[in-house]
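Reviewer 2 asked us to include a model.

Predict the structure of this chain.
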Amino acid sequence: MVDSIAPDLIEVKNLEKRFALDEGFLETVKFRGGKILREKREVHAVNNVSLNIVRGEALCVVGESGCGKSTLARLVVGLLKPSAGQVLYGGTRIDNLSAKDMLPYRRKMQMIFQNPYASLNARMSIEQALMEPVKVHNPRLSRAEIFDKVAEVMQAVGVDPSWAKRYPHEFSGGQRQRIAIARALTMDPEFVIADEPISALDVSIQAQVLNLMLEAKDQRGLTYLFITHDLSVVQHFGTRVAVFYLGSLCELADTKTLFDTPKHPYTQALLSAVPKLSDEAPSHIRLKGEIPTPINLPPGCPFESRCVHANARCLAEHPAPLQKPDGAIVACHAVEEGRID
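Predicted model (C-alpha cells):
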C-alpha cells in the first residue's frame, strides 16, 4: 500500500539506464591489433541519478536534447525498466513490480506526451480515446457514468463535450493537447509527467496550456514532473528545477535559488543564454568543445571537456552531489573546492 503520509511522492535512488547498441553475437565481435575481441557497446542514457519529488510540487527537468530527460520520465512512470537503481512511489518500490501489481499505480500516474498530433489515435474519436482508460481501470462503471466523467473533464480543460464524436484531425494542436491533458485527468491521478507538452504548439497557445495545467494542479492537488528545455517556462511553472547534462544531475534547487544564484558552470551557461532586455544581464557564456558521446562516457565529470574551471580531478573523478547552505544540490568539484562562488 502507498504511504499517504510520506512527504515525497516519488523518490529516485541511484537510477541508471543503459541501451545496448550491439544485440547479436556478430555485432559484438571486433578485430583489433590482430586479435578477435568481443565488445558490447551501450548508450548510457541516465547515470546514477538520485532525486525526490515532493507532493504537490512541480519539479522541472531541463537540459540539452539527448541529456536523458525523457528517459528519466519513462523510468519513473514505468514505461522503461532501469538498468540499476530504484523508483519509489509514496515509499513503496515500484520499478520491480509485475504488470498486474503495477496496475494500482498506473491509475495514480499519467503522462502527457510532447506531440499532440502523434499521441492521439487517429482512428479513435475523442470520446473513445477518453473513455477507454476509464473503462479499463474502472470496469464496474456503467457507460453513462463513464461518459459523465469524460464530459466533466472535457469541460474542465475547455473542450466542448459536444465535440466528443469528432476525430483528432478535426482539432488544432492546442485543442489536441487539451484533449491529451483531459485523457490524463480522467483517471484522477496524483502524479502527472509532462514531457515537453507545449514545444509543438504555437507561442500564443503555450500560455493557455500552461495555465490550464497550473489550474489543474491547484484544483486537483496534482504533482508534476515537467520536462522542458524552455527556461522561461520553468520560471513560470516550476517550484524546483533539476538540471541534467549527459544523463547526470548537475544541480537541483528551488526555482528562485537556481535563477538568482546558479552554481554549476553548466547551469550558469544555460541561464546566460536566456535573452534579457536589462543592461545588467550577465554576458553570454560560450561553452568550448563538443558534447561527449553517451556511448563512451568520460571517467570523471561529464561536463569536464567544456568547463573552463576543470582540473585534473574533474578529468579523473566523477563529482558527488553536495548540498549547499541555501538547499541547492550541486555535483561539481569546483563548487566543492570553492573555486567557483
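The chain has a mean pLDDT of 88. The longest helix spans residues 203-220. We have added this to the supplementary material.
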